[in-house]
Amino acid sequence: MTKVSHRRSAVAAAVLAVGVLLAGCSTSAPQAGAAATLGDTRITETQLTDQVHAILEAQRQPVDTANAELTSQALSRMITIELVNTLAKQNGVVITQGDIDQRLTQFDSQAGGRDQVLKVFAEQGVAPSQIEDVIRLDLQAQALGVKLDPHGSAEQQGAAVVNAVTKLSNDLNVTTSPRFGTWDAVALKIAPGGSDLTAPPALAQ
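The structure assignment produced for this chain is given below.
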């Protein structure tokens, strides 16, 4: 592996690491017009469509491209961000803008510049406008691991976070619209099984 490839892989690994935080499973239907609901919080199909459009633009693809996998990934991340934000508030975890800026600067160094960072994030399905949220999520997860299992190993702390997110997901009765699939608590992601219109309405053909 070349030096540049190694740096790109390090950034990509940080992006992909947030995927292990997906949790929750429910069979009840969400509110009308919602891609997902978490207690009283709704993620609308319009919000999801906007996220997918931003990713497609970052990947230099037409925004009307129907991509079920990308849509599922975007919705999974949006749900995870809501859950971890709530868990962070409950546990007094605060991530500052300075913390985010510092991590982004580290990524710049690892990847060989901001343009490379943006490219790697785009390849992993993260638009420029979504990068800070992903970094905040990563930092929150690390801080929560220390809070929840202060004497545990990194693996134990990670498991503690996943368990806490799973419990919160169940407490909030997280649901997703059938068109996008359902939460799979074993695979820790949205499982396939939606209708043939698995893209947001603005993308479905």
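Interim note for the steering committee: Residues 1-30, 194-205 have pLDDT under 50 and may be disordered. Residues 68-90 form the longest helix (23 residues).
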